[in-house]
TrEMBL record:
Listed name of the protein: Transposase
Organism: Sinorhizobium americanum
Ranges for domain Tyr recombinase: 18-193
Domain of life according to the entry: Bacteria
UniProt entry keywords in alphabetical sequence: DNA integration, DNA recombination, Plasmid
Cross-referenced Pfam families: Phage_integrase (PF00589)
One GO BP: DNA integration
UniProt entry tagged with the keyword Lyase: no
Length: 211
């Protein structure tokens, strides 16, 4: 008769999810102003990453024809999961892109690499971000993806509906977008605690007793 093997239960430990690093609006402004030259190429590319919440690969693969100034949209082809979507194009970002286009006259790829038949690579864009971050004196452990995180958080702090942010970011699940509520500090500061309502009721009760 064979001996019974001891029963073992497998336990899966969930890796704790870290909150995303977020830059303040002032830090983003300093970083974009410090974007390396020559010209506006990297400043424009990093500005799209923040101003439209695009991923590095999405910025790199933009074509000139993806900028729809008539409808104020950016067409993102084959984003994460191979899905197309529309991203927002603000007037200020459009002005910067027009200045960049007048300067560089790109054809085909909006941000061409070397040779120009190829787009710039996410590695090149990451290097530009790191250089700008150091020039701006930002000590936070921020990466290029931090600009996308900051875009979402700043929208949330401006009271934009989380479902609208979900669409803009191209998230399949609302729960993915909802994590930005944990880092939206302005939203936390501006939310009135139910304790304040309790205090108002206590004050009202006290006044009634004194009357």
């Amino acid at each position: 008769m064979s001996a019974k093997l001891p029963h073992r239960t497998l336990t899966f430990q969930r890796k704790p999810q870290k909150l995303p690093v977020v830059l303040s609006v002032e830090e983003v402004a300093d970083l974009l102003a410090a974007a390396p030259g020559p010209g506006l190429k990297y400043r424009a590319a990093l500005s799209i990453s923040y101003g439209a919440g695009l991923r590095a690969s999405e910025v790199c693969h933009l074509k000139v024809t993806d900028i729809d100034s008539e409808r104020m949209l950016i067409h993102v082809e084959e984003g994460k999961g191979g899905k197309d979507r529309k991203a927002m194009l603000s007037p200020g970002l459009l002005d910067l892109l027009r200045d960049y286009w007048r300067e560089a006259r790109p054809r085909g790829w909006l941000f061409p690499g070397k040779p120009k038949i190829n787009p710039i690579s996410p590695r090149q864009l990451n290097r530009a971000f790191t250089a700008a971050k150091h020039m701006a004196g930002i000590a936070k452990p921020a990466t290029l993806h931090t600009l996308r995180h900051s875009f979402a958080t700043h929208l949330l702090e401006a009271n934009t509906d989380v479902r609208v942010i979900q669409v803009l970011l191209g998230h399949a699940k609302l729960s993915t977008t909802a994590r930005y509520t944990h880092v939206a500090t302005k939203l936390i500061r501006d939310t009135i605690s139910p304790f304040e309502r309790l205090k108002q009721l206590e004050d009202l009760t006290l006044r009634r007793r004194l009357e």
